[in-house]
Write a structure and sequence with these properties.
Distance between the termini: 37 Å
Helix content: 40-55%
Protein name: Helix-turn-helix domain-containing protein
Pfam families: HTH_20
CATH superfamily of the largest domain: Winged helix-like DNA-binding domain superfamily/Winged helix DNA-binding domain
CATH topology of the largest domain: Arc Repressor Mutant, subunit A
Domain HTH arsR-type: 1-93
Oligomer: single chain
Radius of gyration: 20 Å
CATH class of the largest domain: Mainly Alpha
Number of helices: 6
CATH architecture of the largest domain: Orthogonal Bundle
Low-confidence stretches: none
Strand order of the largest sheet: 1-3-2
Length: 185
């Protein structure tokens, strides 16, 4: 998973439904061959599957198997895999935010005015409270995510796929005498 194009392909197939490597290449502005290679790698590990022949019957279409999976990045200090993937996901999300902020078309300005680009806050939480807040955030988004998984024919005018990204990053300990480590008691 530690390749940005693989994440882009998963996002595209999740949002748009089944697509061929050629279609993915056009949308993502990368070569069809590169998309084909990465789609086969994703299929090898069960992240995508063959959706049958494409519209012209010469290419296969790919899809995300249902039900949709939530990607969890295991925190494992013994390997570089988890932190490397975390870094790629964060860089990718940050770039998507910057790309959105840089767009000045009428649609993006309208969305910025109504939905805003971000909400930022600093809150005093324990690790357990942070976990609870994360679960509440996921529960709040759940009905909209479920609607996304339905057929796009049900889409109402003005609806678009919207990327949400939550990151909880504990600040360094500011109080004197606080080492930043939690007590084990």
């Amino acid at each position: 998973m530690a390749h940005p194009l693989r994440l882009d392909l998963l996002e595209l197939l999740t949002a748009a439904g089944p697509a061929t490597a050629a279609h993915c290449g056009r949308v993502l502005e990368v070569s069809q061959a590169s998309c084909s290679f990465h789609l086969r790698q994703l299929a090898k590990y069960g992240f995508v599957e063959d959706a049958g022949p494409g519209r012209d019957r010469r290419e296969r279409a790919w899809q995300v198997p249902g039900p949709r999976r939530e990607m969890r990045i295991a925190v494992d200090d013994s390997s570089d895999g988890g932190p490397a993937l975390e870094r790629i996901v964060v860089e990718r999300e940050a770039q998507a935010i910057l790309d959105h902020v840089g767009r000045r078309d009428a649609g993006s300005v309208n969305w910025r005015q109504k939905a805003g680009v971000m909400v930022t806050a600093v809150a005093l939480l324990s690790a357990d409270e942070a976990a609870e807040l994360r679960e509440q955030w996921k529960a709040l988004l759940a009905p909209y995510v479920a609607r996304t998984e339905k057929d796009s024919a049900d889409r109402l005018p003005g609806q678009r796929h919207v990327r949400y990204f939550m990151a909880a990053t504990p600040l360094p300990a500011f109080e004197s005498g606080d080492s930043g480590h939690e007590s084990e008691h």
